[in-house]
Structures are given as structure tokens and as C-alpha cells.
Amino acid sequence: MTGAGSTPSRHGAFWIALGIAVVVVLIDQLSKVWAVAALADGRVVDVIGDAVRFQLAYNTGGAFSTGSGVTWIFTIVSGVAAVALAVFAWRVTSPGWAIGIGALLGGAVSHFGDRLLRGASLGNGHVVDFIDYFGWFIGNVADIAIVLSVVYLFMLALRKVPTRHDAHPQPEEPADAEES
Predict the structure, then answer these.
(1) What is the pTM of this model?
(2) Is 50 among the residues known to form the active site?
(3) Active-site residue 176, yes or no?
């Protein structure tokens, strides 16, 4: 409950963000389980002709497989990003921002989990990629969530949508108000 002049409960926005993050992680991880089971034999499945295909790949690096020799750095960065996003999700009260932060958090958590646990040693894992776009790069559901959420959050920022909303905004008093 909020009183007059107080900010709305941040918990509502946090639960929105957390719920979306959980959905992104579940969809991403379940799709990766499917990809490993269905495509491990090297099979390629055309989804939209040659434009979008399912093809299994393991990525120890970052975007476009850059930095594959320093996987542990990507593990740390994705872990720090997940913690920072969770803190930010706790602080916002805007449902719009909570949606974008939740999708970004879900992608970061899913990649962190892959890098932490999908490898020969802790923290040196790989991300399972399986969605091939025009033969240019191969990604996954978490990548889609990350890209779309960054675009969405950028649009919110351009539109100057506040991250926090007051339940009952108080009108500003004129600067030259007379004192009684």
C-alpha cells in the first residue's frame, strides 16, 4: 500500500521483471535442450528457406565468437550484468522499464548459466547457439531477448519514460509564492 505523496511499491515492477526473466531463461534453456538433442548429428533444418535455419553451434566467446580464448571473462561479465540488472529491477517502479529489464536479465542469467556450467571446468563453458541468420551468425533465444530488450529500453530512454512513477504526483509550488 502506498500513501498520498509516496511512490508506488517497487515490488510490483520487480515481480514483473523477475517473471519475464524466468520465462526467458526457461524458453532459452528448453530450446537449447531441444537443439542439442535434435541437431547434435550435424543436421541443419531450414526454417525460412536459407534465411533462417536451425544449426547447432557452441560458442565459447562473445558476439560473433570473439574472444573465445577468454571465456572466463565473459562468465564474470554476464554474472556481474545479471546482478546489476537485478538491483536495477528492484529499484524501478515503471512497468515498462520492468518489462525491458526483465527480458535483458533473463538473457544475461541464461548466458551466465551456460558459461558457468556448460564446460569442462566451472566458468569456462560455452553458450549453445542454434538459430542461423542468413549464414551471418548463429544465436539463441537469450540473444533475441537481449537484442530486443536493449532496443526497447533505448526507445523508453529516448521517449524519456521515467524508471520510477509517483502514485500521487504533487503539483509544484510556484517559485514566487508569498509566505504567510
Answers:
(1) 0.80
(2) no
(3) no
